[in-house]
Each structure stands twice: as structure tokens, then as C-alpha cells.
Amino acid sequence: MLNIVLFGPPGAGKGTQAQRMMDATGLPQVSTGDMLRAAVKAQTEVGLEAKKYMDAGALVPDEVIIDLIKDRMKEDDAKNGVMFDGFPRTVPQAEALSEIVNVSIVLAIDVPDERIVERICGRFSCGNCGVVFHDQFNPLPANGCACGSFMEKRRADDTEETVVARLKAYHQQTAPLAEFYQKKGLFSLVDGDRDIDLITTDLLAAIN
Ligand code: AP5
Fold first, then answer.
1. Is 125 a member of any domain?
2. Are 85 and 15 in contact (CB under 8 A)?
3. Which of 69, 89, 164 to mutate to test the pocket of ligand 1 (most atoms within 8 A of CB)?
4. Of 74, 130, 143, 161, which one has the greatest count of Cβ atoms within 10 A?
5. How many angstroms separate the alpha carbon of residue 75 from the centre of ligand 1?
6. Dihedral sign, CA of 157, 121, 113, 182?
């Protein structure tokens, strides 16, 4: 069983790399951000609670996130391992995760803060298949999205003001997790300020 944690600041490329690594690893992507956005859209109790934090660029309370993960890990496709994207994001979340599964490796995508705003503010995705693009760095191919039914989607929290708050939350609450996993010998750092393909190659090499 292989349980991978993709770690890094907002906009580092965790989602982009998870999508590329799904075929190579056979593991599903478990993105707490995607799960929360689905809950907001469905206007569930969790979604209504989470929305006020997400809109402000703050972290959703740990207990909400841990319950989501406990339920997700009971699903059939998680039995051979998963790729966590955007989870855990606090030490209490990491401690709770260690009671649910053994983490095999933490792949940290290192990107300097000054790159983050341009990455997040140029992001869009296909509302049909979920593939992530960028206005400048990863544009939609001339022949359209591979799914054949492209629908442009932009995230409500991808604004310059919210990015500043998200980066602050990352440095205060999430970055300390690096030391948590370094002490366990599970932390592997990859330079994320390079071409997307080169990063995928390095991440796959770190797993192998
Ligand atoms: P979440 O959805 O997890 O957002 P995030 O961590 O802020 O990360 P992003 O999805 O913004 O970035 P990414 O690293 O996946 O980058 P991407 O691949 O898209 O969380 C949203 C909110 O939900 C949080 O603020 C919080 O409120 C809440 N939340 C979620 N999980 C939580 C948790 N565990 N605990 C508490 N609260 C939680 O890439 C970004 C852009 O850059 C794209 O356009 C892409 O095409 C481009 N790009 C990617 N790689 C490169 C490259 N190498 N070079 C140039 N451009 C690139």
C-alpha cells in the first residue's frame, strides 16, 4: 500500500502533479479542497460551514477536515493507497492521519512566494473533466481539452487578496509540518519552480 502526501504552498502545483501521477501510480487523488468545493456547491452543512473560511483564505477547522478524510478513506478505491493533495495542513491533521493510515512518503513541491500570485491568478480548469490549466504557463491546447467538452471554470478564491491570506495560513499553520515529517524520515523536497514535466519526473523518481 502506498500513501503519498503532496505538500506545498497554495498554487505550488499539487493538483497538477496529482493528475499527472494518477496513471503512473494507479492511486486516486484525494483533494480536501475539491471535497470542500463539492460540499459548498451542494450546500451541505459542511459546505456552508467551510465556505466562510475558504472565502477568507483561512483553513477550515481540523475536526471538519478529519471527518471528511475518515469517510473518504472508507471508500473502495482507497484500499490500495491514495495521493493526498492539500491534506494534512496542520500538525493535528497529520496526527489524526497517522491513526488512519501509514504515510509512505511526503513529496514537497518547493515554490517561492513571489511565484504563487501569478500562478493562482492565471489558473483555470475544465469544468467537465477537472484538468487544471494556466493562462500563460499551461494554456489550453489549440485543439481544446482532451475530454472534448471544455468548459472554463475559475475558482472564487483565486484572487490576489485571498492568495495573501492563504500564503499566511500556509506559513503559520502548514509549513511546520515539514519538520514533523522530516523527523519521521518521510520528507522529500522537489524544486517546483521549473517546467511541469521535469517536476513530474522527479516526483515519480522519488516514489520509486
Ligand atoms: P486547496 O484547493 O487545497 O487550495 P491550495 O492548497 O490553496 O492549493 P491550490 O489548489 O490553490 O494549488 P495547487 O498546489 O493544487 O496548484 P495547481 O496544481 O492548481 O484549498 C482551498 C481552500 O480549502 C483552502 O484555502 C482552505 O480554506 C480549504 N482547505 C483545503 N484543504 C484543507 C485542509 N486540509 N485543512 C483546512 N482547510 C483546507 O497549480 C496552480 C496553477 O499553476 C495552475 O494554473 C497550474 O496550471 C500552474 N502550474 C502548476 N505547475 C506549474 C509549473 N511548474 N510552472 C508554471 N505553472 C504551473
1. no
2. yes
3. 89
4. 130
5. 24
6. positive
Query: Cα(107)–Cα(16) distance, rounded to whole angstroms?
Result: 13
Residue 79 inside a domain? The answer is: yes
Question: Residue 15's domain spans which residues?
Answer: 4-112+172-207
Categorize the per-residue pLDDT at 208 as very low, low, confident or very high, splitting at 50, 70 and 90. confident
Task: Quickly count: other Cβ atoms within 10 Å of residue 184's Cβ.
Answer: 12
Residue 23 — very low, low, confident or very high, per pLDDT cuts 50/70/90? confident
**Nearest CA, atom 43, ligand 1:** 123
User: What is the SS3 string spanning 177-194?
Assistant: HHHHHHHCCCEEEEECCC
Instruction: State mean pLDDT over 42-58.
Output: 96
Residue 196, ligand 1, Cβ within 6 A: yes
For residue 71, give the CATH number of its domain: 3.40.50.300
Whether residue 152 lies inside any domain: the answer is: no
- Residue 7: which of 204, 177, 197 has the closest Cα? 177
Q: How many domains does the chain have?
A: 1
In a domain, 141, yes or no: no
Q: Is the dihedral of CA 21, 24, 30, 35 positive or negative?
A: positive
CB of 166 closer than 6 angstroms to any ligand 1 atom: yes
Q: Tell if the pTM clears 0.90, that is, is over it.
A: yes
> How far, in Å, is the centroid of ligand 1 from the Cα of 40?
17
